[in-house]
């Protein structure tokens, strides 16, 4: 199979995240640096996460949700709704839960540079819209 046929069979979200890992290694520090740069008030939420374990776990779960939303969305629906309620309990300000997925997209897009494609852009837009719908407070009971 040629590289272009292989790339065409891979979901653009998975391809972008794979390329992010290939080019940047572990993007955890970059993602949280951008989150804290754009939303400095969020850094205090992670004061107790001295070893980065919570950040790593949160990012891993976010990656799983993004890839699932790009496919069937069965896992992500449950996880996003449950985590939205959990984040409310941690006093995460309204709207901040949804921002995290956009931060991941921004870091991925910036890291990929010219390798970022229009297919990736469209897929991320669709996935972010799905995530926003699932995390809307009116849907969480």
From TrEMBL:
SUPFAM superfamilies: Globin-like. InterPro entries: Globin-like_sf, Globin/Proto, Mb-like_M. One of its GO terms (molecular function) is heme binding. Gene3D superfamilies: Globins. This is Globin family profile domain-containing protein. It comes from Hyphomonas pacifica.
